[in-house]
Amino acid sequence: MSLNKKATIAVSAVLVSSALLSGCGLFGGEEKEKIDPPSEMSINNEDANVETEETTGEESGAADEAAETTTIPTELYLIDNNGYVVSQTLDLPSTNSVAKQALEYLVVDGKVTELLPNNFRAVLPADTKMTVDVKDKVAHVDFSKEFAEYNPEDEARILQSVTWTLTQFDEIEQVKLSINGNAIKEMPVNGTPIGEEVSRSIGINYDNSVVTDITNTKPVTVYYMGGEEDAKYFVPVTKRVSNNVDNNVTAIIDELGNPSLGSKLSAVLPSEVALLGEPKVEDGTITLDFDESIFSSGEENVINENVLKVLALSLTEQAEVESVAVTVNGEADLLDEDGEKLEPVSRPESVNTGSY
């Protein structure tokens, strides 16, 4: 598992090979071939100044061929057929402006069209153009007038998609929006307030179905399973829990086993699983001690792979958590589904990869 909390911008321009891209599924390949030296990619659209040397025709042809086969795995927050905003990791062309490119691949009838997974659609209105300038961890995004031409019911989804797509990059923590150079403090169609800038604190795929007093609650984001039987993927959902809950981790574990009725999402963590004692965080690793109901069905000492993944995805949304260690009844002598000794699990670089 990767130790990166978010996707890094210092990416390598590598030739795509079957060995590199052979991992498919919800997370895809977790180990990537390292090359020397890594080439630094800029997220700033204004920094795309690349000096080139004169080459012979033969060298130029080789360079063109290499350019056509180099890609950057990028998370695009698209909309599925149930209306959820969901990350899909796609291999996009190598570029010096990865943040701007990520937004360009969110545009309806645009570059993403031939790459769209089944049952997913793009987010931004057709023909939307944008510039992206990143300063002091803030991405300043200036959209063309087409940005305001969306259906009202998609307003929250668009805001979430743009924000979560851009904040996958380490160099971006907040997003500031403008249209034709004019800063906006609310979304242009339904007027959703956004203030000076937005971050992941706005949440995603809100679920307030069981909340009676929202003022006495706080948000936590947990991951469930969505999709069809032959094409499953992880879906982030922001839920509200009581302000009286001292420990967000305990609240997250409780919510992981309880997707809302009628949500078309399923829990990976069994609802009967119980924590034994208070979770402990040390050097970025949180240790969770569960009862035996966390074991894979019929397999003593074995923890299901997807259980580990939803724990890592959900808990690393907490700022102080970088990886998750699991014990059962205080014992750490556990195995993963490959029969290997269970090690602390961190958030993967890429989520929801694979073919559909």
From TrEMBL:
Keyword terms of this UniProt record: Signal
Origin, by domain of life?
Answer: Bacteria
All copies of domain GerMN, residue ranges: 99-188, 249-337
Hey, what's the signal peptide range on this chain? 1-22
Q: Disordered: where is this region?
A: 31-68, 336-356
Looking up PROSITE patterns in the UniProt record yields: PROKAR_LIPOPROTEIN
Question: Where are stretches of biased composition, namely Acidic residues?
Answer: 48-67
Protein name as catalogued = Sporulation protein
| Organism of this sequence | Cytobacillus kochii
